[in-house]
Amino acid sequence: MVAIEVLLWPLSVARIPFFLFGIAAVAAALLFDRLKSGAREAVGDPKRTVEILESIQDGFVALDREFRFTYVNQAAEVLIAKPKAELLGKNVWKVYPELLGTIAEANCRRALAKQMPLHFEYYYSVSNRWADISVYPATGGGLSVCFREITREKQAQATSRENEERYRFNLKAANVGTWEWNIATGEDRWSENMESIHGMPPGSFHGTIEDMIRSVHPEDRDMVRGKIRRGIDSGEHYEVEYRSIGQDGKVGWVGAKGRVLYDQHTGQPLRMIGVSADITERKAAEMALRDSEARFRTLARHAPVGIFQLDRNGSCVFVNERWSTQTGLTPEQSLNDGWTGALHPDDRDRMLRARSEAIARGQPYAVSYRIQAPDGKLRWAESLAVPMRNNAGEVTGYIGTAIDTTEHKLRENELERTKKQVSDVLESITEMFIAVDRVSGASRTPTGPR
C-alpha cells in the first residue's frame, strides 16, 4: 500500500467538482508502467489501481519521455474538455502550443531532467483559470501529473486580500492602528502606524507589553494596568484613554479599545486584541471647549442681567444667578419649561408664541413680559435671544438675556400719563377758546331796526 499512498497523496486534497481548466494543468507524473508496477506491489491488481484513478475527482494524466499522453483519467477529460481519444499518443506541446515558454513547460522539463517531484500553481490565461499541479518523474522516464482547479480559491484569496488592504487603508486614513498581545509570552504586535500614534520614532518599539507600558505617561500607567487587568479578569471590553510620552518627551493622547480571547476548553486568557487611535486633537478641542464653557459660566455668574441658554428645540438648559434673583426660581426649577412659571398668566401665551415662531425659523427674537417677583410685585422684563450655529450653519441652540425693564416701563408710563395730562389740558383750553369765540361772535352781531 505504500507505493499507492505515495502516488495518490496529492489526490486526497479537497475532492470537489472541478470545471474546465485546460491542458496547462497537465504536466508530468510517473509513467503509467510505473503506476501499474506500484499497483501490483500494493494490491497485486493493476485494474484496481486504474479503477481508483478513474473514480477520483482530481485530474490525472501520464506522459512519456517525449511528453506524449499515455493515460488520461475521466476527471482529466472533464477538466481539459477533450476526450482521451483526442489526446492519447499526442504531444502536449503540439496540442497546446500556448504552454510553450510558460512555467508549466519549464517545471515539466525540470522534473523530467532532474528526476525530482515539483508542486506549483499555474494561471492559464486562455480560460482565465488557476490550477494546483503536482508533477512526479517516473523511474523509466516520463512524467505523471495530478491537478485540480483552484480558481474559486484564488478568487476568494484575492477578495480577502482586497478587503484586508481596504481595511488597512481605512485604518491608516483614520490614523487607527491595530495591536495583538500574547498574554502568555508578553509579545505585543503592533501595526506599522502604532509608533506614530504614540509619537514614537520608527523602530523604537520592541514588541513587548513592557514597551507599551513605557510609552504611557507615568501618571496614567497604573490606570492603564488596572484597565488591562479588569479586562482579563472580568471579560469586559477594554476601553481606555491615556496620555503618551513620545519623542522628545512630547505628550499626546491615545484612545484604545480591545477584548480578551480565551481558550474555549480551559477558559484561560490567551490574547488581547484591539485598536488604538491618536486622539490628541480631540482632547485639545475638548479642553478648549471646557475652558470656553468655564469662561462663559464665570461671565454669566457675575453679569448684571439674567442669562439663559436653550437647546435647539427651545428647552432651557441653563440660567445664571441673576435670572434666579429676578424670578425667584432656582436654576433647577428653571430648566426645561420650568421658567414659564415666572411669567404673568396674561403674558404667557404671547411670549411663548413669539418665541416658538422665531425658533421654528431659526431667527432671533425679542419680547417684553411681566414676571411675578419674589417680593410679590409685578416687574417688567425684556428677553433678547439669538441662535447659536455650528460650522455647517445649523442652529444648535439659543443664548439670551433677560433685562429688568420695570423702571423704564414706569418712566414710560409716567411719560404717557404726563403726555395725556398735557393733552387733556390743551384740549380743555382749546374748547374754552372755542366757546369764548362763539360767545364773542354772538355779541357783535348787529340787530335790525325795531
Structure report:
This protein has 450 residues and is α+β, with helices and mostly antiparallel strands. The chain has three domains: 2-153, Beta-Lactamase, CATH 3.30.450; 174-283, PAS domain (Beta-Lactamase, 2-Layer Sandwich); 303-404, PAS domain (Beta-Lactamase). It is 42% helix and 25% strand. The protein has helices at residues 2-8, 32-43, 46-55, 74-80, 92-95, 103-114, 151-173, 194-197, 209-214, 221-234, 280-302, 321-327, 331-334, 345-361, 406-443; strands spanning 59-63, 69-72, 118-124, 129-137, 143-149, 176-182, 188-190, 238-245, 251-262, 269-278, 306-311, 316-319, 365-372, 378-389, 395-404. The strands form three sheets. It has a five-stranded antiparallel beta sheet, with helices on both faces. Strand 6 (176-182) and strand 7 form a beta hairpin. Helix 1 crosses helix 2 and helix 2 packs across helix 3. It is elongated. The model is unreliable at 1-44 (pLDDT under 50).
In short:
Helix content is 42%, strand content 25%. With 450 residues, it is an alpha+beta fold.
Q: Report the CATH C-level class of the largest domain.
A: Alpha Beta
Strand content range: 15-25%
Mean pLDDT: 81
The end-to-end distance, rounded to whole angstroms, is 172 Å
Number of domain modules: 3
The helix fraction, in percent, is 40-55%
CATH topology label of the largest domain: Beta-Lactamase
> Main sheet?
5 strands, antiparallel
- H-E order: HHHEEHHHEEEHEEHHHEEEHEEHHHEEEH
CATH architecture identity of the largest domain: 2-Layer Sandwich
